[in-house]
Amino acid sequence: MRNLLSSLVFLTVFMVSPVVLAQESGEEKVELSPDIKLRSLTQGVWLYQASAILPGYDEPVSANGLILVSGPSAMLIDLPWNDEQTRIIAEWIASSHQAKVEFVVPTHHHQDCAGGLAAAHDLGADSWALHKTTVKLYDAGSVIPKNSFSNEKVLDCGALTVELFYPGTGHTDDNIVAWIPDRKVLFGGCLIRSAGAANLGNIEEADLEAYPETLEKIEDRYEAAEIVVPGHGEPGGKELIKHTSDLSKKQKR
């Protein structure tokens, strides 16, 4: 019993006392746990990078998601790998911003986007996903989102508007992107590759024929984007869309 109480006390202190790694040039970096790191991208928009050890990989695999905070409202665009990571992020949002996660949006059906959906529902969050994503999660016997849409959906997180859009097939046939127009931030998810990526990554479900056209739609639609966040690796600008397009054309050949 004493060990259990000690563990609970440690967990409580850890959860409300994240390690601030850096705070300079307006960018704050925070480590919530050994497998979750955060950093601010712009006002009310945080990047989280959550990692997990996967079969067949020697090193932990890190995946990106966004945390939006506006007043008492918060939103997660993509969920981390598992429920525990989702709870840790939600606790940080509550303790650091006095906000509650009201919405979560998995941008496709893979574990690095929808792994923590059950915890989000337990915390009272509403969830939205492309209808195709909901069907795929249902067929896999996984937790499914509460709401779905077919092509486009607009959600409000406090004063921040988030536009969800299905541009077509690419990484998977259910990948969507999320646009925060007031902050000029585009979350491309696994459809977009980082500048350091030498290939398209996981292409088990990719549509290599359609990929370049899908990226062209994104490039045309989000000309105003200043920050582009890929599903893995470091954020950049619109050059990430062009880089991914080049990779898709090369891999297609």
Describe the overall structure.
There is one protein chain. The protein is an alpha/beta fold and 253 residues long. The protein has one domain (19-252): 4-Layer Sandwich (Metallo-beta-lactamase, Chain A), CATH 3.60.15. It is built from seven helices and 14 strands. It has a nine-stranded mixed β-sheet with strand order 1-2-3-4-5-6-7-8-9. A five-stranded mixed β-sheet has the order 10-11-12-13-14, with no helix packed on it. β4 and β5 (61-70) form a beta hairpin. α6 (211-221) packs antiparallel against α7 (239-252). The longest helix is centred in the N-terminal third of the chain and has 15 residues, at 2-16. The radius of gyration is 18 Å and the shape is globular. The termini are far apart.
Global structural class: alpha/beta
**Low-confidence sequence ranges:** 1-16
- Oligomer designation: single chain
Please bin the fraction of helical residues.
25-40%
CATH architecture: 4-Layer Sandwich
Structure in a nutshell:
This protein has helices at residues 2-16, 83-97, 111-114, 117-122, 131-139, 211-221, 239-252; strands at 19-24, 27-33, 36-42, 45-52, 61-70, 73-77, 100-105, 126-130, 147-149, 152-157, 160-165, 177-180, 185-189, 227-230.
SSE topology:
Layout (H helix, E strand, L loop, with lengths): L1 H15 L2 E6 L2 E7 L2 E7 L2 E8 L8 E10 L2 E5 L5 H15 L2 E6 L5 H4 L2 H6 L3 E5 H9 L7 E3 L2 E6 L2 E6 L11 E4 L4 E5 L21 H11 L5 E4 L8 H14 L1
Parallel strand pairs: 6-7, 7-8, 8-9, 13-14
Antiparallel strand pairs: 1-2, 2-3, 3-4, 4-5, 5-6, 10-11, 11-12, 12-13
